[in-house]
Amino acid sequence: SFILVYEAGTMVFDQTSELRSLADNLEKTASYTSTHDRLTDLPNQSLFLDRAEREIIHAGNQNPVSVLLIEMQNYNEIRTTLGHNACDLIIKQFARRMQGVTKSSDTLARIDGSIFSVLFRDNTEAARQLASNILKTVEPAFQVNQSPVALISNIGIVEYPRYGNDVDTLL
């Protein structure tokens, strides 16, 4: 009977450990999905705003923090013409291209359906250069089902503290 009690205790312990592990994994997954875009795996608006707020606090009034807002201008027309699946492919390609021109220390995020943003520590001139690089990299046609699709993008640039002292004012 002692052996049965020992084995039962071991089974309960093993199952409890397994349940804790599953709960931890679910919690990590839930945390990640609440802060990242499902389609691009980039930070979402919530995480972007949090990071922007932290950067502004860290920068104080001495160091510039720049924010670029990138909008896919003809996204709705493409979605109407080609459908949601085609737009999902374009969004993924768009994100990958922008990842190729931003630094790992920058925060590239998908803010909304057709709007992305980049947050980085630098001045307006560096922001203009990055904006130019982004426009060059997203200018070539995107491939959807072996057909080229032209995308028109606009970029706006704001700098802390020049254009505002908090995230809400900047965006």
Mean pLDDT: 87
Radius of gyration in whole Å, from Cα?
Answer: 22 Å
Class inferred from helices and paired strands: alpha+beta
Strand fraction: 15-25%
Number of beta strands: 6
Sheet having the most strands = 4 strands, antiparallel
Which overall shape is indicated by the principal axes computed on the Cα atoms?
flat
Kindly report the spatial arrangement of strands forming the biggest sheet. Answer: 2-3-1-6
Helix-strand sequence: HHEHHEEHEEEH
- End-to-end separation: 69 Å
Per DSSP, the total helix count is 6
Kindly state the percentage of residues in helix: 40-55%
Uncertain runs are none
Characterize the structure shown.
The protein is an alpha+beta fold and 171 residues long. It has 6 helices and 6 strands. It has a 4-stranded antiparallel β-sheet, sandwiched between helices. Helix 3 packs across helix 4 and helix 4 crosses helix 5. The longest helix has 34 residues. The radius of gyration is 22 Å and the shape is flat. It starts with a helix and ends with a helix.
Summarize the structure.
The chain has 171 residues and is α+β, with helices and mostly antiparallel strands. The protein contains six helices and six strands.
